[in-house]
Amino acid sequence: MNGMPSILSLLTGRWSIGLLATFIIGLLIWYLGDLVPGLRTPLDKEIGIVAVFIIAMGINAGLTLYRRRRDTRLMSGVAGEGGQSDDSAASVQAEAEDEVRLLRERLQNSLGLLKKARKNRGYLYEQPWFVLIGPPGSGKTTLLSQSGLQFPLAQPDGTGGLTPGSVAGIGGTRLCDWWFADEAVLIDTAGRFTTQDSNETVDRTGWLGFLDLLRKTRARQPLNGVIVMISLADVVTVSQTERLSHARMIRDRIREITERLGVSIPVYAVFTKADRIAGFTEFFDDLDRDYRRQVWGMTFPVSGDIKGFENEFRLLVTRLNDRLYERLQQERIPSRRAAIASFPIQIETLTEALDEFLKAAFGSTRLDPAPFIRGVYFTSSAQEGTPVDRLSSMLARSFGIDQRRMPALRAVSGRPYFVERLIREVILGEARLVAVSPAKMRRQRIVRYSSFAAIGLFTVAGCLLLWQRNMQNRNAIASNEQAIGFYRSKLEHLQLDPVADDNLPSILPALNAARELPDTRTLARNHDFWPDLAISQDTNLATTNRLIYQAALQRLLLPRLLWRLENQIQEHFSQPAFLYEATRIYLMLGNQGPLEPKMVRDWMLLDWESRYPGPAMKQARDQLLQHLDALLAIPLPDMQINGGMVRQTRAEFSRVTPAERVYGRIRASAVSVPDWSPEQVLGHGQKEFTRLSGRPMSDTIPGFYTSAGFRQVLLPSLSSAAQDVANESWVLGNTDQSMNGTTPARLEEGVIALYTADYIRHWDEMLSDLALVPFAGHSDLVQRLYVLSSPQSPMRDFLVSITHELTPTADAQAEQNGDDKTRPDPEKARLAGLFAQNGKSGQTAPAPGSAIDMHYAPLVIFTGRSGQAPPINGVMQILNQFEGAIAQLPNADNPTQILESTQNPVQALEAEAGRQPQPVARWLSQIATAGASTMAGDAHRAATAAYTDGQGPGQLCHDVVDGHYPFDPSSEEDAPFDQFVRLFAPAGALDSYFTTQLAAYVDTKGPVWKAHPIGNTAPPVSGAALLQFQQAARIRTLLFPGNMAIPAVHLRITPVAADSQSTAVNLKFGSMMAAWKAGANGALGQALGASITWPGDNMSNITLDFVPEAAFPRRMQGPWAFFHLLDSGVLTPTGKPDELTATFRSGDREVTYALETSTPEQVLDRSLFVHFHCPALR
């Protein structure tokens, strides 16, 4: 590996390059010598090659000798330079002479080390040189050690250690330290060279001797820059007199550098030890390494001066204030927060002192021009010492506080701040900014003239290439003829004239062959590395080939494009919009109108994607598109078009009004406006909505019909609409037809009318299609109502959002004026429309989009976008109340009472729906219907529960009726009388249930009871069950007259007749008896009647006896004994409403009684009980 640099140096050395150049020139002489007189024979060529070799080696040797002598003189000059800058060196003290001698030795050692490290002849100028000056302790050495530069070289430091990449002077930096970095050489001068206060004669002599050494060593460019290091504390903590003295001292050193070296060198003022300002460490403590590497300061323009410092410094303070809030938020320790808070003020207090110092050091006067100051920067290499708290000092002086008692700010040892990028990128990055010395400029002239001479030599040599170039021309012509022949072979199977098809893929091989004919660049590549000469035929060949390709485009591609357009026109003759655009492009390609390449390209691309779809045809589409671009880039010839077809198409699409044409074009240009969909607006709230048509919520409204489309497309296009129509008069073939007498204002009105109609149609269709997702029962209704009526209601958000799209003029006006206060009032727009209908609008024409605003004004007013109190708030409150009422239904004892009350939430919501615009009215009705259904279900469940639970009549009814007499005449088991009374009595089980649960749903006025809904709530009872409740009411009316607590049927029973065999008949009711006794000799006989009341004590034991005794005596017992007696006989109406006859038979015996009742006769009709069955609820 150690040998690689030597080998590389050998291969790239001057001798190696000279040998290679000689070899190349020798080859040229050998192969092209025939073109030069005197080099035609092989011997002459050999002599020429040897001569060139000797001349080249001589030049190389001379250059080498010159460089060695120059370097020897340089080293000797450095070694022998006494450092005396004038003829008065004899009077310089011995100490000054020793100072210069040490400097000379240090420079000689440094140059030797640099030469050894670089191993090339340009080591003196390969890197830029910078010198660091400044008072002692200003931080020069520390800055370099923290600069981030790599110092690969190291030397003994005189104490047994090594300096990090520098050549140290005796006693550290008593003289100079040479720092060799990869990027530059940095010379760290002793601080006394700047101040010259220890021994002025010695210091000044050493300083000027150092400058002379630099001028001798690097005559062309002694230095690339001067870095002035100033301790910030030395400027702000001293008196004005000391500060100005310090500034003048710096100015003197810079002037000496400029005058001594004879060049204008950029100066960089670096204020070090910025950490000495109180709060610095705390304020920048959060910066990571990358941020600490930044530059903190200002760089002036090349033509600028120090006058701009104050403004730039205030910008630095402003940046600190911008960062202050963030740092205070990050810091929690009070003392550190206080230091951070005061830091920008601390920096600001430095303004006056720094400005005074810099103007004194770098300012311009009439007699003393300003140095070439490049910038002022602030750094902190190592945080040491006690910070300077100017703010506290000023406050202490203002309030008379003893500063000795003020707490000292303890510095924190830290890291370098704002050093690395300053050195590496700012200062070293401007290494080329130094002005070049006059001597160097003279040498550059010599090099330039030498270069001109070399160019002349090579020009002569280039003439020798003419012959070879001629041969290449011949080869190029032959190759071009071959390519043209290949192109002609592709034309053999194509019909050129006339064209009768639009098969574009069939012509691609010929077009590709024509395009592949060599052009100028292709022909130039055939020359290898030789330059093109005047005898070249490349231009002529390329021009011919270009014309062949253009002819192919015009004869092969263009006619087929026109043929295709003719077919499209005929296929879409019934579509005026398509017909218009197709004819327009047809006329363009026929050179009958101004060409719009982009429109033609877009049209053809869409057509080809349809005709030649799929990945397999992508290459063909791409090639066709390339050929089309080439065709559109050249002037189109006048083509013969189908005039008859054009006249027919013009007659067809001329029926389309100018407004329709303009509107269609504006609509087609709105492809960039994003479409609107409910899904985008609703977000997660879309689960509450559905589309009645079944379309998805992502189904969109074209972006053209949104507020953005209105503002961004329609309005900007209206102003140019008339001009567009006028410019396209050539499509119609008659300029007068372009506008058809339509003024620009009328044209705009027509376009707006078409747009308004489509706008309203799209949004009406969408709004009428949106509905709430059907509610799935009580729980779902309550949960979703809670969401819909909440402050974050998706319904509210959706309506508020959608009204932005329904008031396009409002957003357009607000965008124009930048103030929502100028937004039109939709209510005012609606009223203005009413006045406009009566011709009293007070304005010449409505604003574009005002009809849309007026159409949707009710919905906009409802959401409150008009600036008024939004009615939607009241609807949200009603929904909230509705949700509360629905939520309480399961806990209500009787939901029917809620339905009957005047505070029926369903009816209240339905009434509110009738007052609101669509689609809100439909949504509220949907909620009301769902609520009514839920309430009906709850009412039904409550009614069923009340009927079947232990306190209801359901089970009691079955216990009394099922399988018991008198409801089942064939049953031998009587109905329990006390339960019968509890079931049928007034305010009994059935009566109470009917009154509380069903009465509100039943109309009892007619002969047949009828059920009806309450609001939208269906009755919980069927018609069959309702008949049973009506039958129960009849039983209660007949058997419990006067709402008595127990049944009471009063009768008078009187014997009327008996059979001839019976002498007496006795009907006994307990202790009471209705008797009949026959008269003598066929007389009428005697009848004894009885008045009875059922039920009663005498009615539970009834007997019917015939005398003489009949074969089957009658015996009835129990509370239903009387009804059993009646069932054993035959009841016959007499025509009177309160009288019946009852005939009883026992074998051949028979007796008839007259029954008189105080109630209607139906009380004794056994169908009264037989027709009753326990009601079955839904």
From TrEMBL:
Limits of the IcmF-related domain: 508-805
Keywords, ordered alphabetically: Membrane, Transmembrane, Transmembrane helix
Disulfide bond among keywords: no
Database matches in Pfam families: IcmF-related, IcmF-related_N, IcmF_C
Membrane spanning residue stretches: 12-32, 47-66, 446-467
InterPro entries in UniProt: IcmF-rel, IcmF_C, P-loop_NTPase, T6SS_TssM-like, TssM1-like, TssM1_N
Residue span, Type VI secretion system IcmF C-terminal domain: 1053-1158
Domain Type VI secretion system component TssM1 N-terminal: 201-454
Protein name: Type VI secretion protein IcmF
Protein species of origin: Acetobacter aceti
